[in-house]
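Q:
Got a chain?
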Amino acid sequence: MSGSAKGAERGSLDGQVALGQQRYRGPEYRRLLAAARRSLERTGGMLTGRISVADPDDAERKAIIGITGVHVSAGTKRMTVSLAALDAAVSRGGGCGLAELLTVLGGQLRDRPAESASLTAARAELVSLAEASPLHGTSDWFRDWLGELRRNGTLTRLAAQGDAEVLGQAVRVLEFLAGRMPDAAPIALPALAAHITGDTKVLNHGTALATLVLRALALQTEVPRPASAAERRELWDRVGVLIDDLASRVLVLNVPAEGKGLGEWLDGAARYGTPFQVTLHQLTAHPIQVSCPRIYVCENPAVLRRACAELGPACPPLVCTEGRPSTAFHRLVGLAVGAGAELWYHGDFDWPGVAIAADVITRYAGRAWRMGAGDYRSAADSGVFLEGDPVETPWDAELCEAMRTAGHAVYEETVGSQLLADLTEYRPDA
């Protein structure tokens, strides 16, 4: 046979195959072939099963009869076809097997058993990677973290996405932080990211790596998983990592300090009774020692402003959180309490306010400053109703119940006179 004749014959055959395949594009085959695809993908291409079509319309009924050769009356509820019979019919009419036809019509078939086995192996590899860390043998929090990642599907998701490297990077970050000396200088977050991965931005908020590491650090430091920028900054700071050391600041009045730079500035401000904003950058760049018997803490800057106006340099050391305490606040107060200062805290009588009070008082073994149930009851009704869920007040359990019963908030500036009286009467040697 000549080459041209062979080419013509091959073209004719290809045309017949294409025409046969086109036949199965009709709507009468759509549900049947969809069921076949699901079955073959589920079993890795096996043709030993059976598929069915529920409540077939007349066109579907006739199409299936054409495949099986078995007549079925109209109105039947379900028609069943063996995959082997469907494969044979496709081969006769379409010039290819069932798997090839499904690929032509709807794309490559998935091999789900193989995918599952591959995913299982990849997940096991991730577990082995984490278990190989020295932290796995020495730290309960690390084992708890890995167990949580296994239970909540994080490891499976990382394996499915091919992000095994992210877990390895998270482990290396945790190892690095755990291996630092307690008195080591803080490290900036971009510097930490670059040291571990070479990418300064890979630990920024929202990245997979940052999420994994923060989950572990929350377990390590026994705090709730951070839900805000301030909480993330504080958690990083707890392990010696700086986020934004210029934005994090704390307002102080008459806080005595020793040390070049910041220590000199604080002493100068205290001589004039002038409020001073201390940034985390200053606390890091200019180490200081803070030494005083007692340090008062308020929440609202109006209280500190009034103390400045009425007492000036005579006011005892006073620090203002300006709402939720910043990392700079914790760094400064930690220095004072670590050197022997007793912390007295006052804040708003609302649920967020007592939550902050509970955290600060517990963290620094401090005292509640005019924040008992009696103080709350003696304050004037502000007319502002409490909102949100009640918060326990461990320093005075009766306070929580009193607030529940009265149902109104008392903001700190409304009791400023009592606070100023305490500041006026304080004698460090008393």
In short: Residues 3 and 9 are 10 Å apart (CA to CA). The longest helix spans residues 3-23. The two ends are 119 Å apart (CA to CA). The first strand starts at residue 50 and ends at 54.
